Amino acid sequence: MLWPLLALLLLPFSLAVKQSAHEQLVELAAAGNGLIKLNEKTFDLLTSPKRDWSASVHFTALSPQRRCAPCKEFDPSFTAVARAWATAPKEQRDQHFFATLDFDDGFAVFQKLGMNSAPAVHVYSPTEGPNASAKRFTYDFQHGFEPGPLAEQLSVHTPIPIPYKPPFDWSRWGSIASLVPIVTLVFRFIKPVLQSRWVWAAGTVLTSLIMTSGYMFTRIRGVPYVGPNGSWIAQGYQNQFGQEVQVVAMVYGVLAASFLMLIVVTPRQMSAGRQRTQVYLWTAVNFIVFNILVSLFRVKNPGYPFKLFL
């Protein structure tokens, strides 16, 4: 009667002894909700020379004494990716493990690997089976500390892509929602301005002046604002500086305004003397500014054959 009872008591211990390394890792991952907290012993177990599984190991130093700000910044991202992998189908989930090793829990491992900085993420490929490989992947933090790029890069080494989905951004959508009443209130006041044909006319004229003065030419070619010697006029019709665009736009604008004053404003003057004065004035302005424009052409190309009195 005593022997059957003793065998029953020893059964859990015998099962534990027979448990394989892979089964132990599966239990550790399940206990950590997809993330294994490593020490020196379990690290050797995870990176066993004979393994048919792969693993992503996060080396970090979260102790306040280590003062590793990047470690604290990156840790939630790695944890989020590990939690996402825990939702993958069991058949694929048990072929890849996510683990974290803190410097204080695995100093000998850091020393053995020659690691003197953290955080770092290494992917250990299987050494046995159809996916066996001797290569070890190291995550490049130029992709950022966010979980999205991390999941995308690590998915190359997992049996199936990591089913990571970014959490709902309450702060972003809350900010957008708070802007709705503000935009509505502002639109209420600027609605008359937007409905004014004079506003649209002015905008159209300004856009036309800028575009016809060579703005797109300078943007596409990436030319400097002024020349190397401080000059603002570039020689040749195929060259133009940024400041030259502003001057030419102003000249075109003054010419257009003088024509408008002659054909729109002047005829509406009730006094003959005032009307005559404006005819003389705006005709003179038009003539002088057009001379300036022709002079600019002669400066850009000395061989330009036309000129007025300048």
Description:
Helix 9 (197-212) packs across helix 11 and helix 11 runs antiparallel to helix 12. The chain starts with a helix and ends in a 10-residue tail after the last helix. The mean pLDDT is 85. It has helices spanning 2-18, 21-31, 40-46, 69-85, 90-93, 107-113, 147-154, 170-194, 197-212, 215-221, 242-265, 272-300; strands spanning 35-38, 54-60, 96-102, 120-124, 136-138. With 310 residues, it is α/β, with parallel strands linked by helices. It has a five-stranded mixed sheet, sandwiched between helices. The protein has twelve helices and five strands. Helix content is 55%, strand content 8%.
Amino- and carboxy-terminal Cα gap: 126 Å
Percent of sequence in beta strands: 5-15%
Number of strands: 5
Task: Give the overall pLDDT as a whole number.
Answer: 85
Strand order of the largest sheet: 1-3-2-4-5
Count of helix runs? 12
Overall shape: it is elongated
Helix content: 55-70%
Unreliable stretches covering 5 or more consecutive residues: none
Radius of gyration over alpha carbons? 38 Å
**Helix-strand sequence:** HHEHEHHEHEEHHHHHH
Estimated structural class: alpha/beta
Describe the biggest sheet?
5 strands, mixed
List the helices and strands and how they pair.
Elements: H1 2-18, H2 21-31, E1 35-38, H3 40-46, E2 54-60, H4 69-85, H5 90-93, E3 96-102, H6 107-113, E4 120-124, E5 136-138, H7 147-154, H8 170-194, H9 197-212, H10 215-221, H11 242-265, H12 272-300
Parallel strand pairs: 1-3, 2-3
Antiparallel strand pairs: 2-4, 4-5
